Amino acid sequence: xxxxxxxxxxxxxxxxxxxxxxxxxxxxxxxxxxxxxxxxxxxxxxxxxxxxxxxxxxxxxxxxxxxxxxxxxxxxxxxxxxxxxxxxxxxxxxxxxxxxxxxxxxxxxxxxxxxxxxxxxxxxxxxxxxxxxxxxxxxxxxxxxxxxxxxxxxxxxxxxxxxxxxxxxxxxxxxxxxxxxxxxxxxxxxxxxxxxxxxxxxxxxxxxxxxxxxxxxxxxxxxxxxxxxxxxxxxxxxxxxxxxxxxxxxxxxxxxxxxxxxxxxxxxxxxxxxxxxxxxxxxxxxxxxxxxxxxxxxxxxxxxxxxxxxxxxxxxxxxxxxxx
Length: 324
Fold this sequence. Notes:
By secondary structure, this protein is α/β, with parallel strands linked by helices. The chain folds into 2 domains: 23-124 and 249-317, D-Maltodextrin-Binding Protein, domain 2 (3-Layer(aba) Sandwich); 126-224, D-Maltodextrin-Binding Protein, domain 2 (3-Layer(aba) Sandwich). The chain has 11 helices and 11 strands. The protein has helices spanning 2-18, 42-56, 75-82, 97-104, 139-148, 163-175, 187-195, 206-214, 262-276, 279-288, 297-317, and strands at residues 31-35, 64-68, 90-95, 116-124, 126-131, 154-157, 180-183, 201-204, 218-224, 250-256, 291-295. A 6-stranded mixed β-sheet has the order 2-1-3-10-4-11, with helices on both faces. The protein has a 5-stranded mixed β-sheet with strand order 7-6-8-5-9, sandwiched between helices. The longest helix has 21 residues, at 297-317. The N and C termini lie far apart (66 Å).
């Protein structure tokens, strides 16, 4: 009898050790899904789509509720996440801004190193767009117009350390042209400024621009990408257009507040791995022309270091003052 009891105990121990770590944690209430942009921004669009897929595919026992914490070029959202130490029911979409903003803004209290990496999801190209009835048919047309009237042309964008402005700084440094940068907290406002004729150009993600291009409101004049996207085979990349500047990468993924236990991270890792394998997600990547950039927590932590080093060099080349 004692031998049999020992066998049963050993079997139970083996079963428990074989169980996935994430099985030790499951959310028990709605998960707060934090984004640093207002409604319509790239991070907001992505978060809302993810929340829909999680619910549609029954991937989690609770709902994911988007909370827009826009303002401060992302610093407000970063501080909000960092101060929720140990919160197992809060996740956030991070973008390249979360890595670049602290590099140039001394007032930034937190960096991604103060938070818990979960997964990297996508790498994104971008488009250089103008209003459909603008006189600029090519990027060269816009650059030449900016040279003739320094400081009068305008570009709408996000924070001053966003890819939008980094691309602008690199192009101005390369060409000697000069144009103004108007910062807006949300993607919807940036787009409205262009469509309303209040600015002349913007750098925009394909997912934000798609409907406006299809409806004839926007014209794409260049691509911020290493190669032409399938949806824009006739539009040159910036380098193909004749401007030899570094490709400025954009990245999106998920992180959590600091002080989160490994089993919690493992749960969310597995959740997003399962999401990345759904037909809905694969279709979304194809439609938005995103690159699948999935990485788990340990890989993402290393990526944060390499990406930060890369962006520090690009910002310095663009003429930005780097404080970290």
